[in-house]
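Notebook, p. 212. Picked up where the previous page left off. The plan for this session was modest: take the two constructs that came back from the sequencing core last week, fold each one, and keep the raw output in the notebook itself so nobody has to go hunting through shared drives later. Recording the first one now, exactly as returned: residue sequence, then the structure token string.
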Amino acid sequence: MSAKRVMVWCGLLLSAAVLSACGSLSSYPAAPQSAASVDHRYKIGPLDTLNIVVWRNPELSSTVTVRPDGRIATPLVEDLVAAGRNPVDLAREVETVLAKYVRDPVVTVVVSGFQGNYSDQIRIVGEAARPQAVPYRQNMTVLDVMIQAGGLTDFADGNGAVLVRGSEKGKQYSVRLKDLLKRGDISANVAVLPGDIVIVPQSWF
């Protein structure tokens, strides 16, 4: 191979290294490891499954799925808004409706098949193994989110990932997912909040 060709190849390799390094750098501030948050009360979302138990009235008890429009219907209770409410508040309203037909009803609402309210979900998009939206849980971290998303693809620029914080009007932070998931650097783990979005870009090389 001629000296000129060697120099050309060296130049190309150097350019690739520089571009790859630049692709992993972020102009956003590092995401804070902890985030102040009030105690999170779960809000029912569309497609959640609700077990509605009316004490001593099994014929009025039922298991229902919240419709896409956020409403439910149970025996004697028609077209009640469930999405965006916590289970206790919903149980009290069901009691109010049933009180027209049953003396002193006692209702319990238990949620299963969690989907959560859309505004509270954490979304992981881009080069995650399984991009998806997951229900927020108290004290959830980006590690919890990435476990549910199956980690990174082989083409991910993990250290170029961005966390978009919905509760801060879309403020963007950098997160080091490669260091966290591939190198076990627990200092790269950060808290997530309801409404956060994690964006994982594709690596240039």
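Okay, moving on. Second construct, recorded in the same format:
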Amino acid sequence: MIEAPTMADLPTTALGHDAVHRDMLGHFASGVAVVTAAGPEGPLGFTCQSFVSLSLEPSLVWFAPARTSRSRPLMRASAAFCVNVPARGQRDLGSAFAGPGDRFRGVRWSPGHGGAPLLEGSCAWISCDLVHEYDGGDHTIVIGRVTGLRADASREPLVFHRGRYRSLARPD
């Protein structure tokens, strides 16, 4: 049995040091999501690892964009968004929406609920209406009510672990 470390066991740099914090939490594999919405001047979107199902009844999800996000404030006006779950093999999609520039260049999509882009090739799409936003430190916690769901069971999701995009291991 492995015993959990106590606060005394942790190096002092682990308490509040961004690089150490990011490295330690990078050991937790997460899904990759691209959150999209119709903006005032065209489609908007960004890559987000902090996405979770919150409630089944009512059907709610949450994601947590950084407060420094330039897209999130523009998305707020539409009050509708889509959480696209990129499929294995769509690393370029995750990277494109994480960086600056025209994120939709060369990306095929169709308008979904409220005009939010549904990205072609994703393994799942969750359409939502904005319900609440809460302070989450250097992030904002955004809660959405699910208005529609679609999935392509033939595709596997893209995951992120220790600073790299990964794929799920194939079962034996």
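Notes on construct two before I forget. Residues 109 and 119 are 4 Å apart (CA to CA).
Flagging for discussion at group meeting.
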